[in-house]
Amino acid sequence: MSTTTTQIKVNQNLIRDNVPEFISVDISPQRNNGEWAPNSPDLNVMDYSIWSILEAEACSKPHQSIDGLKKSLVKAWNKIPQEVIDRVVDDFPKRLQRCIDAGGGHFENK
């Protein structure tokens, strides 16, 4: 078993033990995981919500360096209210159902 696979299993076990609504997935190499969309931006909290908040706040002006951009992103992250993050995470089951209803294809979140 590769180090990556071992770490994924450890992470899944940790989450399974602490998150009641955890959805497990078979990550074995023999399976093509066609039923799981691990890279879907529609199912990634950072992609469908948080990055747009960070971009609007941290990237509204040019940065002189990568370090400046990093500092701006950290500052923007720290300004996001916990309630916003909670709302985005709580919306995930609805997004997941919309993805299922769309047969795994793209869907609009309305």
Automatic annotation (TrEMBL):
It comes from the Eukaryota. This is DDE-1 domain-containing protein. InterPro entries: RNaseH_sf. It comes from Acrobeloides nanus. GO terms for molecular function: nucleic acid binding.
